[in-house]
Amino acid sequence: MDLDHIRQQISSTDKDLLQLLATRRQLALSVADAKLAQNKPIRDQKREEELLVSLIERGKALGLDAQYVTKIYHVIIEDSVLQQQAKVQGQLNGNNGPVCRVAFLGRQGSYSYWATQKYFTRRAEKLIEIGCDSFNEIVQAVETGHADYAVLPIENTSSGSINEVYDLLQHTRLSIVGELTHPIEHCLLGVEGTELSKIRQICAHPQVIAQCSNYLQGLSNVKIEYCDASSDAFERVRKAQDKSVVAIGGEEGGKLYGLAVLGRGLANQKDNVSRFIVVARKAINVAKAIPAKTTFIMYTGQQPGALVDALTVLKQHGISMGKLESRPIPGNPWEEMFYVDVFANLGDYAMTRALDELNRITRFVKVLGCYPSEDISPTIVNADAS
């Protein structure tokens, strides 16, 4: 067979694979209905483990490496779980409807733009994108009814928590209704033909600069230009059409602005992941079949052992904590407000009792939201055992 004929066969096979993946997704959504009717949790990791072992065995018989099969099906299983969760939540709280207005930082191509696309493609027929220049503008868009939802970055595995967002949550009336994690790969992007030795200016968002600090410290005679979002950085480079001016951001975003990749893997950490939260004016109920998170803030006061006493309440009720973040209280020097993420449904008896006790022993408690957890950890199987 000649090369063109082989490529035609590959294209035909890829077309068949896409159709099969679409069919599998529809079957997974049907499974969600069956699980709800039988009052079963959305995720069944024992079933996933049995499935993976069986698929690895079949793959080996076909000459496919166990790691290859496992990696593919981890992605497929994650998609199935998230699709089922979105469907169940839509039935419980009402679907978003044919149009969904979402505010996010930057414009097309920013990291928040891609996170918005990733989250809402499972939940809305048509997405109206509302790009904003600041986190405050994003929150105001939802508070005033200009947007239905907002997507906000809250933390990153490399640069840590985004304090400005935490501070906004302290005062807003909005509720957290969702979360997602999104892998971040920072690339150097510029006009085609740019020589690295001739770069004199780098445009990037402050968080991106923090996440690539090790790379940037190795450069000399280069000016750092802070931007409102990665999309802003891309736009500046596109308009400049100057081979001494480049941006740092995502490859896909840069391509939207006609920029070429000049370098990859700039982040301080190899596995660079950002966590985003989704906020809305109205709180939601999380179905019992779905793993949930609850986020609240509390002010314990400054008496000795106050924070330990508060955290002991969670332990006594068997509630696992995912994050504890402290932020200063405006107007109260040296006093801190604590943000807490726990793996619990606000409707659970244990969570209700814990909040009642926290209200008694702390100065202030405010629930910021209860929402489906999208921490879909991969099911691990011993590939050699099969």
> Span between N and C termini?
36 Å
Approximately how much helix is present in the residues? 40-55%
Low-confidence stretches: none
Shape: globular
Q: In angstroms, what is the radius of gyration? A: 23 Å
Question: Strand-residue fraction?
Answer: 25-35%
List the helices and strands in order. Answer: HHHEHEHEEHEEEHHEHEHEEEHEEHE
Please outline the major beta sheet.
Answer: 6 strands, mixed
CATH H-level name of the largest domain... which superfamily?
Periplasmic binding protein-like II
Average of the residue pLDDT scores:
92
Helix run count? 12
Using the 3D structure, state the CATH architecture of the largest domain: 3-Layer(aba) Sandwich
In total, the number of strands is: 15
The level 1 CATH classification of the largest domain is Alpha Beta
List keywords for this structure.
386 residues; alpha/beta; D-Maltodextrin-Binding Protein, domain 2; 4 domains; 12 helices
How is this structure best described in words?
It is a single chain. Strands 1, 2, 3, 4, 5 and 11 form a six-stranded mixed β-sheet that branches. Strands 8-7-9-6-10 form a five-stranded mixed β-sheet. A hairpin with a 3-residue loop joins strand 3 and strand 4. Helix 11 runs antiparallel to helix 12. The relative contact order is 0.13. The longest helix is centred in the N-terminal third of the chain and has 35 residues. 41% of the residues lie in helices and 26% in strands. The chain is α/β, with parallel strands linked by helices. The chain is built from twelve helices and 15 strands. The protein folds into four domains: 91 residues, Chorismate Mutase Domain, subunit A, CATH 1.20.59; 94 residues, Periplasmic binding protein-like II (D-Maltodextrin-Binding Protein, domain 2); 77 residues, D-Maltodextrin-Binding Protein, domain 2 (3-Layer(aba) Sandwich); 81 residues, ACT domain (Alpha-Beta Plaits, 2-Layer Sandwich). Keywords: Amino-acid biosynthesis, Aromatic amino acid biosynthesis, Cytoplasm, Isomerase, Lyase, Multifunctional enzyme, Phenylalanine biosynthesis. One of its GO terms (molecular function) is chorismate mutase activity.
